[in-house]
Amino acid sequence: MSSFFSRVALLGCLGLVAAPPVKAQYGTPEGVAQAALRADSAHDWRLLLALAHPDALFDYRHSQVMTFKEDGLGFPGVDSCEVKELQGYHHFLLDSVFRVPTPDSLSRLAPDTVFARQQRFLARRRPLRQVVDSFAPARRVVGDVIADDSTAYVVIEDTYAARPFPDWPKRRAQIMTLRRYRGTWRTMLDPDLGGPMSAFAMIGGCQ
Question: What is each CA distance from 65 to 98, 100, 103, 131, 140, in whole angstroms?
Fold first, then answer.
């Protein structure tokens, strides 16, 4: 696999279901953030889905659809072999992950279904997930700021035991956005909660 797509794969990390109820103990911004971080770390995508704001799931679906807009031609130094590899990745996503024929079909799936299908697929790829997890930071909630009655921001500190690249910071701050929905706080799935793990590592290189 090319070093270009290897970096994309690492930086990317990387069926309709009934979501479990959001419990009362998740009623504060910090409580929701801590629950979301635990769910993401444990790959409990059902709980993560339950804690997600509907707008976050809509944005998640949009980001997956936009994946198919990239053909690789706009990146400097990308050759025809890498373009072919990217096209194979797109077919792989449609056929094996989302199980739809076209990007347009994907755009018409319910947002929670898009999230669930991708997370279910990733749950079955434990060896690949373990590689990505080896670079995952330890995360802790530092505090929160209530912006108004509908929006809150939670400060998270990431600490890396193993850095993915030499110039990667050992510690950095991240912000999780939470918004009110039906009387509870819900995460906007930032920073990179439930982030899609690139499937490039599952695809052979150009022949």
Answer: 11, 12, 6, 26, 31
Peptide bond into 20 cis (omega under 30): no
Q: Residue 117: which of 178, 54, 194 has the closest Cα?
A: 194
Q: What is the pLDDT of residue 84?
A: 84
Q: Which residue type is seen at 184?
A: T
Residue 74: other Cβ atoms inside 10 A: 7
The yes-or-no verdict on residue 65 having pLDDT over 90 is: yes
Lowest pLDDT segment from 24-38, 84-98, 112-126, 135-149? 24-38
Q: How many residues does the chain have?
A: 207
Q: Which residue range(s) make up the domain with 58?
A: 3-136+187-202
Check residue 178 and report its DSSP letter: E
Domain assignment of residue 141, yes or no: no
User: Reduced to 3 states, what is the DSSP secondary structure of residue 96?
Assistant: helix
Sequence-separated (6 or more) residues with CB below 8 Å from residue 42: none
Number of domains in the chain: 1
Instruction: Give me the sheet containing 138-146, strands edge to edge.
Output: 138-146, 151-159, 171-181, 184-187
CB proximity list for 6: less than 8 A, separation 6 or greater: 200
End-to-end CA distance of the chain: 11
| Mean pLDDT within 168-183 | 96
Distance between CA atoms of 93 and 97, rounded to whole angstroms? 5
